Structure prediction request, 648 residues.
Amino acid sequence: MGRVLIARFGRLIATLFAVTFLSFMLTSLLPGDPAVAVLGQDGIQNEELLEQVREDLGLNRPIPTRYLEWLGNALTLDLGESYINKGQDVWGDVIVTRFPVTAQLAVMAIGIAVILAVPIGILGAYREGRWQDSTTSAAVQVALSVPNFITGIFFIWLFSVQLGWLPASNWNRVGDGLVDNLKTSILPAAALASTQMAIFSRLVRADMIATLKEDYILSARAKGLSNRYILVRHALRPSSLSLMTIVGLNFGALLGGTVVIETLFAIPGLGFRLINAINQRDILVIQGITVFVAVVYVVINTIVDLLYAVIDPRIRRR
Amino acid sequence: MTNVSNSPDYPRERLSPVSTSVGSKTPSGKQKRATVREVFAEMPWLVKLSAIWLILIIGGAIYAKLDVAVFDGALPLQDPNLQTNNFSAAAGGFGDGEPLESPSASHWLGTDAIARDTFSRLIHGGWVSLIVATVAASFGVIVGGFLGSLVGFVRGRTEAVVMAGIDVILAFPALILLLALVSIFEVRSLTLISLVIGVLSIPSYTRVARASSLAISNREFVMAARSIGSKPQTILFREVIPNVFPILLSYAMVAAAFVVVVEGSLSFLGLSVQLPQATWGNMINQARRDIKLNVAQVFWPSLVLSVTVLSLNQVGDFFQRRGAIRAAAL
Prediction:
C-alpha cells in the first residue's frame, strides 16, 4: 500500500507540473505581443501600461524562470489581476466567489444521476433481454446521445415556458434560502445529469449482468433469499466499486460540462465567467480558471484512484 | 515495406488474417472481405436507419457545399444566409419570407428570427459537423493510430515518454482545454476549429491503438514473424498496424459522435466557426432566445443534432461489436 501511495503521489506531482506549465504557456502561445493581448484594445496606445504589463508578466526573462515565478505566485493563490476588469483579483474575486456555484451544480448532477441510474441499471440487468431491459436501454441510448444543452432547453421549454413552474434563468445563492436555491438549480443540475445518468446506468447494467452469473448468486438463490435482497446486498456491492470510479472520473468532466449549462441558464459559476472572459479576451482570467479546473480534475482523479485501492482488497495487495 | 518483397524467406501473404468477416470462407479456404451490402444486411433495423440518416446528412452537406462553391447557388437549394424579407437586387424585389415563419411550400421548415430559410441552414450546418468530425477522425486514426501502434509494439522508454505526454493532455477536462486553446485566436475559421479539435483527438486514439497494439504484439502470428527473422518495422507495418486499423475505425465512429457534440457545444457558446456560417449549435443558440414565440426553430436543429449523434453511436457500437467478434476469431 505504501508503495502504491508513493508512486501515485509522484505521478500526481509530475502531472500537476505539466498541467500548470501548459496553462502557463497560454499567455506565451498568443500571437504577437502578449502584453498587447493581455491588455486588450484599450492598452495598445498606452506605452507606459504596456511596459508595466511586460514587467508584471516578466516577458523579458526566459520561460523557465517565468514559469517558476508564476507557479510560486499561484501556490500562494496569486493568479494575477485582470487587466480588462481593472482590479479584479483572479483568485479572490473570480474563483473563490464562483467555484462554489459550479461545484454545487456538479454535485447535484452526480447525485441525481446516481439516484436514477442505479435502479435503471438493476432493472435492465435483472430483466436482461426482456421488454423492461429493451425500453430502458433505448431510453438510455437517447439520453446518452442528446447533448446536455438540448436537454436543458427542453427543460426550460417544458417547466418554464409551458408549465411556468420554475425560472428559465437566474441563480439564488444557498444563503438566500434552500428552496429558492433549489428552484434555480434543479433544472440545470437535471440537464447536466441526463448524460451522466446514461453512462452510469449502462455501467451498472453491464456489471450486474456479469455478477448475476456468478456462483455465489446461485447459492444465494438456493438458500432461498429474496430477489430484492440478492440484488441489493449481493449483486450491487461489487458493482458499486466500478460505479464509484466512473462517478469520480466524471465529476471532473462535469466541471467542463457546466460551462455550457451555466451559459444556457445564466448561472454565475466558473464556466459562465470563463465564456465571458473568452469573449472579452481577458487572458489572465482564462488562464486562472483553466489551471484551477485542471488542478481540481487531476486531484480528484488521484483521490478516486487511491480510494479504489483502499476499498478493493484485490488492488491493495498488489 | 519494400524490403519485404526482397527477402525470399518472408511469405508474400500476411501471416495474420486481416479484415475478414466471421465464418465466410471462399472455396479455397481463404477468408474473404465482407462487401458493403453484406455488412448492411447484417445490421439490425435501427442501425440500418441510423446508417441511412448519416448518409443523408453527409450527402446533403456535400450537396450544399457544391451548390455554393462550384455551382454558385444554381442548384435547387436556397441561400442559407439570405434574409428573405429584405429587398434583394438579384430577385428584383422584396423576398417572400417573414421572420419566424411556420413551415410552408417555399420554406419547408419555416424561417429563423431574421427570416433565413431554416431547412437550407440545417443542410449547410451539416458541412461544419462533417468536416470537423472527418478531420478529427483522420488526425486520430493516422497520427494517434501510428503513435499508439508504435509504442505498444516497441514498448520501453519510447512508450513511457509518449504515454506520459498523452496522459498530460487527457489530464485536462476536454472542453476546458479546447476553450482555452480556441480563446487564443481572434478569427476562428473552419480550418482552425477542425485543426484544434483534430489535435486534441489524438490522445484518446493513441490510447486505444496502444491497447490493441499491445494485445496484437503478443499474438502468435507476430511471434511467427519474429521467429522467421523479419525486421521490426516490417512486423509493425505488415502485422500490427493492419490489425489495429479496423479497431480504430470502429472507435472513430463513436469518437465522431463525441466530436459532433463538442463542436455543437462550441457553436452553442458562440466560439466555433464565425457567423453567418450556419452550424447546428449556433442555430440552436440563436433560436432559443425566441423559444416563447416559436419552439419549432429550436426544435429542428436540436432534432438533427441529436439524431445524428444517436446514429453515430448506433453505427459505431455496431461496428465495435462486430470488430470484437472478428478480433476473437483472429
